[in-house]
Amino acid sequence: MRIPPGVKPVDFQAALAAFSKIVGPEWVFTSDADVDLYRDAYSPLVGEPDERFASAAVAPDSTEQVQAIVRVANQYRVPIYPISTGKNLGYGGSAPALSGSVVIDLKRMNRILEVDEANASVLVEPGVSYFDLYNHLRERGSKLWVDCPDPGWGSVVGNAIDRGGGYTMANYRNHFDSHCGMEIVLPNGELLRTGMGAIPGAKTWQQYKSGCGPWVDGMFSQANYGIVTKMGFWMMPEPEAYLRCTVRVPRYKDLIPLVDTLNQLENRRVITGFPDIATPLLGYPPTGQVQVFLEGNASYPMTDAHKALLAKADQGYSPELEAYGIANGIPYWELWVTFYGPMEVIDAQWQATQRHFRKIDGATFKVVDRLALPVDAAKIEDYHEPEFGVPSLRAFSIGARSPFNPSPSKGHMWFSPIIPRTGEAIFEANRVFSAAAKDLGMPLFQTFSMPACFWERSFIFILATPVTTDAATNRRYVEGFRKLIEIGGQHGWGEYRTAPVFQKHVMDVYSFNNHALHRLHETLKDAIDPNGILAAGRYDIWPRHLRRTGK
Amino acid sequence: MKTISRVLVPAMLLAAGSAFAAAPDGARVYQKWCAPCHAPGITHPGTHALMAKYAGQKGGVITEWPDLTTDYVRTMVRTGISVMPHFRKTEISDAELDALARYVARKP
Q: Which residues contact A435 (CB under 8 A, 6 or more apart)?
């Protein structure tokens, strides 16, 4: 059995006995085989001395049990680390930031506590997955959609407090922004409700977000100041219709007005769905269609002459390649835009969209899908399911074995810097990161990489770093990943989310005024969790007694 | 009219594996945890991967394999393979895993 760092074996045994009394012995896991199930399945450090391990796991079934566990952890100074469904793959999985922590596994807290059809909101516990919520709503005939990430088996609460995203309208696909009200067990075991939930008998907990006075919800995302046990979300009412279209432009530099125009139209809510940018001349599909391409090995067809020009291009550009595309009607960029709403409204929005993009010389337009909703369940696989509020696991085609990928990876680490939502930033990020990746020997680029459009005013320049079965290769990629973080910081870019193995390096980038933000995080930690029992090291926030060794 | 349904029904419909719970239904465990990746068709990455791995030997749908053993199913669920992660006991309990293994390996 592993023992948490700094804890006497006798105290650990006493804590485990107390945990057993709280949750029942069948929900306290201490054998190596059971505790190994809390390892990060995509860890690049598997079997290495610095791989993160739990010492035990405890699975409560209620908020009251969570409170009791936290009090015991304080009594014996046992470090604990909460997880919701443990599916944060590519960003750390279910392993703790501090090795030896006891994982508090909230998967059993899987109740959907409230569905308010009129307010289009739900209140859920952290063990509820996107599949759970989707099935619950469909079984009850609800007309509410679930904005799902890819893949969709993670926690609705967990993905929100890790600030993940989805694929429908901007105000729903930012999962933290779409929340309304939290219930939190503080590190001393006290129960807190935020927003209007702070009023006893509140009538508007899921109607009004901020309550009165300082709005503290953000402190409980990507942090270690409390355990979220309930969270409300605003849901997207099922639209009447869906329209997906493409805007194709011929020249390399057209990416700049293409993105500018997209931004203007989405910020004005003319374009209402998830935008996505493909590169037909470079051979890459839009983000939302990657799995379709991986399943069928379908790509934009290319002649040998096209391939030869592409091979000679510098970061996806050469005058000859551009001329080839123009001569053969192959666009450099293909923007996919989607619209949700009444059919007559979205048709009009598409007309207005075309009018704005026509200022780009040579722009062409096409309707791809024009559908009355809901889509027949038997046909949903013809589309990117999350854009229809349907969870899916098709995203696991990324890295998986297929007839077109005979050498599957063991997982991946997401490198996810936020960059400005401009064409210029896409060019600059490609220039900077492709040169760095080449120097570091990291297989992140072929010719050009496009960002994902989850957020309204920024891109995530997301790159999958493979995890292999070779420890030395993984170690090299980890060091390379850390160097990329540093290089990003030198250009004013920072990650939006990362695994514990990189959290110190990412937070070091957020260093304005001698790390004023990090120092505030530590001040808060000392005040809220003086014994330092909760999620030590998460996003590099260490309790006082671990600050020298933890880093 | 405002309608609110307040429900305290666990979203996870499967029995938790206690001595007093009904015996787990392997088909339901499969449907919840495995089918999204292992149902027939290339839109399911697990099936697509196994089609490639065993091309010319057998198909990619695990529930149709004649040689699958319950022990192999148990091992895969608890260790994972390639991009398929392992599953914790709060997700699939030992009792559920027994039922699942019998269902997938077609050993009633």
A: none
Residues in CB range of A158: below 8 A, 6 or more apart: A83, A84, A85, A87, A88, A126
Flag if A133 and B78 touch (Cβ within 8 Å).
Answer: no
Q: Please name the residues between 364 and 423 in chain A that touch chain B, using a CB distance below 8 Å.
A: 381, 392-394, 396-403, 405-406, 408-412
Compute the nearest-CA separation of B40 from chain A (Å).
12
Among the partner residues B5, B83, B85, nearest to A399 by beta-carbon distance: B83
Task: State phi, psi for A361 to the nearest 5 degrees.
Answer: -60, 125
Q: How far apart are CA A373 and CA A134, in angstroms?
A: 16
**Residue-wise over A204-238: b if at least 16 C-beta within 10 A, else e?**
ebbbebebeeeebbebbbbbbbbbbbbbbbbbbeb
Side chain identity at residue A197, one-letter code: G
Q: Would the CA dihedral through A215, A533, A184, A222 be positive or negative?
A: positive
Chain B neighbours among A 482-541 (CB < 8 Å)? none
Is the bond into A250 cis (omega within 30 degrees of 0)?
no
Cα gap A7→A3, rounded to integer Å: 7
Q: How far is it, in rounded angstroms, from Cα A345 to Cα A457?
A: 24
Say what the pTM is.
0.94
d(CA A208, CA A199): 12
- pLDDT 10s digit of each residue in chain A, 551 long? 889 999 999 999 999 999 999 999 999 999 999 999 999 999 999 989 999 999 999 999 999 999 999 999 999 999 999 999 999 999 999 999 999 999 999 999 999 999 999 999 999 999 999 999 999 999 999 999 999 999 999 999 999 999 999 999 999 999 999 999 999 999 999 999 999 999 999 999 999 999 999 999 999 999 999 999 999 999 999 999 999 999 999 999 999 999 999 999 999 999 999 999 999 999 888 887 777 777 776 667 889 999 999 999 998 999 999 999 999 999 999 999 999 999 999 999 999 999 999 999 999 999 999 999 999 988 998 899 999 999 999 988 888 888 778 888 899 999 999 999 999 999 999 999 999 999 999 999 888 999 998 899 999 999 999 999 999 999 999 999 999 999 999 999 999 999 999 999 999 999 999 999 999 999 999 999 999 999 999 999 999 999 965 44
Buried residues in B7-17 as b, exposed as e (16+ CB within 10 A):
eeebbbebbbb
DSSP-assigned letter for residue A61: S
